[in-house]
Every structure is written in C-alpha cells, then in structure tokens.
C-alpha cells in the first residue's frame, strides 16, 4: 500500500471509532509558532500555569517527542451535549458533563494505533490527549480540521468548536492535508462577550484572565478584582463558544460516556451551595471536575455566590 492508501485506511478507522474527523500533517518544527509562543510566555499570559514554560522545544518539534516521527495524525471528538444545564443555576463547562475525556480518548487512540500496527506493520508512535507538551490546536489547523478562531479555539464550518483535539504522532509517512482558510471575518462576538476580557486581541487569549484558569488551574484564592465577573461559572467557561455563530451548527455527540449524571442537569443553585463531598464524589465520579477537588469547587461556588 502507498501513503495515500495508508492515510485513507487510518481515516476510515478513526471514523469507525467515533471521531468527528481526522487530518494529517507533516511532523516538523513549528517555525511560525516559536516566536508567538515565546511572546505569549514573556507576557505572562500563562499566569501560574508554570508547566506551559516547560519543554519549550518539545512543544514546537514533535520529533523530540517521538524519535524519527514523520506524521501528526490529528483527531476531533465531539462533546456537544443534547441537554444543557438550566440558565438559573451555577454552570460547568459542557466538556466536563460526562466521563473525563482523557480516559475516553486515550482508549480510542490506543485502538487506532493498534489498528495501524496490525494493518500496516511496524509503526511506532505515541498518543497525546492534552496532557503533554503538544500544541493541539496548531496541529489540528495544520492538518485542515478547521481554523483557529479569534477565541483561540479551533473552528469548523460544519460543526463549530465543541470538540476535543487529540493526536497520534507516528514514524509513518502519510499523505498530508492542507490548512483551511479563516472564516471569522469581521465578527467579534467572542471578544465582546468574554466576561473577564480575557481575549486581549483577536486570536490572543490571556490565560491568566480566563474564567477556566481561575476556576480550574488557579490553586490559591481567586483575586477579588474579578468578583462579579464570572456569570455563574464555577468550573470552566463556555461563553466564547456559546456566542460564536459557527456553533449554531453544533450537533449532539453520540458518545454514551459523555452523557452527564442525571443529577447534574437538575441541580439548582441551592443544591450546589449545599453540596456534600459524597454527592460530589457520586455526581462527578469519573469527571474532569475532579481536577478542582471538592474544596476547589466549594471555593468557586462561594466566590460566585458572594
């Protein structure tokens, strides 16, 4: 089989595994991204996310992560829910409604890599799900899965942006896809709607101002100068995606593991304020919400409530 046939085979299997789409780009140094990332870090846009400064070279060069790698296979997995929380309650990001995506996607990627090795032969590679120094959005855009929008998320005309991004970096040469064009135009909906003005200029998000940062990444007390700006978000924030015109085309996912615990959707503000550790453990048993721990969630609720 040739490179094109290998690529077609991989994309067909990715679809069978439930991925929304699959694109391939050449594993090479991200020359354009280097100065951009360096500038972002120098301006302290990462806040207390010190890990963003680690492995600078590896973030830009996949061959340092997987020796002799030839291709980055980027994959999208839809998480848009069929039902959302009511307006008059405290909100968590839709991506955290169900089982932690790291487990769900890692499992699918293992299957995909095993399939490649079985069908194509001795192929070495590694799976990445948002937990290693890989610039997911950049690779997704390079492989033609969408463009990076003004809110810095990847956008696709057909389905918007409510999806996870993952990669397989492999030492197999494949047929590479081309990037798509930007379709944000003159729209500034995400910039105008951001509750904390974290989108400091089109395509640049100050991570240290984002509600997701304050409610998940920040381990200390939330600064008082952002009090009253959280719009009832207690874990993550979806505002920039919710207002994006392209997300009118979002379709519900069909991954049972992403379905929320039924209790979650019926929780009122009072339920959240009175949540116990045992309820927290039950409702968020395998959820990404566990990242903030029970004490962190309580901190967030109290901050938004006051």
From TrEMBL:
<feature type="binding site">
    <location>
        <position position="184"/>
    </location>
    <ligand>
        <name>[4Fe-4S] cluster 1</name>
    </ligand>
</feature>
<dbReference type="GO" id="GO:0008616">
    <property type="term" value="P:tRNA queuosine(34) biosynthetic process"/>
</dbReference>
<dbReference type="GO" id="GO:0005737">
    <property type="term" value="C:cytoplasm"/>
</dbReference>
<feature type="binding site">
    <location>
        <position position="165"/>
    </location>
    <ligand>
        <name>cob(II)alamin</name>
    </ligand>
</feature>
<feature type="binding site">
    <location>
        <position position="190"/>
    </location>
    <ligand>
        <name>[4Fe-4S] cluster 1</name>
    </ligand>
</feature>
<feature type="binding site">
    <location>
        <position position="187"/>
    </location>
    <ligand>
        <name>[4Fe-4S] cluster 1</name>
    </ligand>
</feature>
<keyword id="KW-0963">Cytoplasm</keyword>
<dbReference type="InterPro" id="IPR004453">
    <property type="entry name" value="QueG"/>
</dbReference>
<dbReference type="InterPro" id="IPR017900">
    <property type="entry name" value="4Fe4S_Fe_S_CS"/>
</dbReference>
<keyword id="KW-0170">Cobalt</keyword>
<feature type="binding site">
    <location>
        <position position="59"/>
    </location>
    <ligand>
        <name>cob(II)alamin</name>
    </ligand>
</feature>
<feature type="binding site">
    <location>
        <position position="219"/>
    </location>
    <ligand>
        <name>tRNA</name>
    </ligand>
</feature>
<keyword id="KW-0560">Oxidoreductase</keyword>
<dbReference type="GO" id="GO:0052693">
    <property type="term" value="F:epoxyqueuosine reductase activity"/>
</dbReference>
<keyword id="KW-0004">4Fe-4S</keyword>
<dbReference type="Pfam" id="PF08331">
    <property type="entry name" value="QueG_DUF1730"/>
</dbReference>
<keyword id="KW-0846">Cobalamin</keyword>
<feature type="binding site">
    <location>
        <position position="240"/>
    </location>
    <ligand>
        <name>[4Fe-4S] cluster 2</name>
    </ligand>
</feature>
<feature type="binding site">
    <location>
        <position position="210"/>
    </location>
    <ligand>
        <name>[4Fe-4S] cluster 2</name>
    </ligand>
</feature>
<dbReference type="Pfam" id="PF13484">
    <property type="entry name" value="Fer4_16"/>
</dbReference>
<keyword id="KW-0671">Queuosine biosynthesis</keyword>
<dbReference type="InterPro" id="IPR013542">
    <property type="entry name" value="QueG_DUF1730"/>
</dbReference>
<keyword id="KW-0819">tRNA processing</keyword>
<dbReference type="InterPro" id="IPR017896">
    <property type="entry name" value="4Fe4S_Fe-S-bd"/>
</dbReference>
<comment type="subunit">
    <text>Monomer.</text>
</comment>
<feature type="binding site">
    <location>
        <position position="237"/>
    </location>
    <ligand>
        <name>[4Fe-4S] cluster 2</name>
    </ligand>
</feature>
<feature type="binding site">
    <location>
        <position position="154"/>
    </location>
    <ligand>
        <name>cob(II)alamin</name>
    </ligand>
</feature>
<comment type="function">
    <text>Catalyzes the conversion of epoxyqueuosine (oQ) to queuosine (Q), which is a hypermodified base found in the wobble positions of tRNA(Asp), tRNA(Asn), tRNA(His) and tRNA(Tyr).</text>
</comment>
<feature type="binding site">
    <location>
        <position position="130"/>
    </location>
    <ligand>
        <name>cob(II)alamin</name>
    </ligand>
</feature>
<feature type="binding site">
    <location>
        <begin position="237"/>
        <end position="238"/>
    </location>
    <ligand>
        <name>cob(II)alamin</name>
    </ligand>
</feature>
<feature type="domain" description="4Fe-4S ferredoxin-type">
    <location>
        <begin position="172"/>
        <end position="204"/>
    </location>
</feature>
<dbReference type="GO" id="GO:0031419">
    <property type="term" value="F:cobalamin binding"/>
</dbReference>
<comment type="pathway">
    <text>tRNA modification; tRNA-queuosine biosynthesis.</text>
</comment>
<feature type="binding site">
    <location>
        <position position="212"/>
    </location>
    <ligand>
        <name>cob(II)alamin</name>
    </ligand>
</feature>
<keyword id="KW-0411">Iron-sulfur</keyword>
<keyword id="KW-0479">Metal-binding</keyword>
<dbReference type="GO" id="GO:0046872">
    <property type="term" value="F:metal ion binding"/>
</dbReference>
<keyword id="KW-0408">Iron</keyword>
<feature type="binding site">
    <location>
        <position position="244"/>
    </location>
    <ligand>
        <name>[4Fe-4S] cluster 1</name>
    </ligand>
</feature>
<protein>
    <recommendedName>
        <fullName>Epoxyqueuosine reductase</fullName>
        <ecNumber>1.17.99.6</ecNumber>
    </recommendedName>
</protein>
<comment type="similarity">
    <text>Belongs to the QueG family.</text>
</comment>
<dbReference type="GO" id="GO:0051539">
    <property type="term" value="F:4 iron, 4 sulfur cluster binding"/>
</dbReference>
């Amino acid at each position: 089989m040739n490179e094109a046939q290998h690529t077609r085979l991989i994309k067909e299997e990715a679809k069978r595994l439930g991925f929304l789409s699959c694109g391939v780009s050449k594993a090479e140094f991200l020359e354009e991204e280097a100065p951009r990332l360096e500038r972002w870090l120098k301006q302290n846009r990462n806040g207390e996310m010190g890990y963003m400064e680690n492995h600078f070279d590896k973030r830009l060069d996949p061959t340092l992560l997987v020796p002799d790698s030839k291709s980055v296979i980027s994959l999208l997995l839809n998480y848009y829910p069929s039902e959302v929380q009511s307006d008059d309650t405290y909100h968590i990001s839709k991506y955290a409604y169900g089982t932690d995506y790291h487990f769900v996607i890692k499992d699918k990627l293992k299957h995909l890599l095993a399939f490649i090795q079985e069908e194509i032969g001795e192929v070495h590679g590694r799976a990445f799900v948002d937990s290693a120094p890989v610039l997911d959005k950049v690779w997704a855009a390079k492989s033609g899965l969408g463009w990076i929008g003004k809110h810095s998320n990847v956008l696709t005309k057909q389905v918007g942006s409510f999806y996870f991004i993952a990669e397989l970096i492999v030492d197999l040469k494949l047929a590479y896809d081309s990037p798509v064009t930007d379709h944000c135009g003159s729209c500034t909906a995400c910039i105008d709607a951001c509750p904390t003005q974290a989108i400091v200029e089109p395509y640049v998000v100050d991570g240290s101002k984002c509600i997701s940062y304050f409610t998940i990444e920040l381990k200390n007390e939330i600064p008082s100068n952002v009090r009253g700006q959280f719009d009832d978000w207690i874990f993550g924030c979806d505002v920039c995606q919710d207002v994006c015109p392209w997300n009118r085309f979002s379709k519900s996912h069909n991954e049972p593991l992403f379905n929320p615990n039924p209790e979650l959707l019926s929780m009122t503000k009072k339920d959240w304020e009175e949540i116990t550790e045992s309820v927290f453990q039950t409702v968020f048993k395998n959820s990404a919400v566990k990242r903030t721990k029970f004490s962190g969630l309580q901190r967030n609720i109290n901050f938004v409530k006051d």
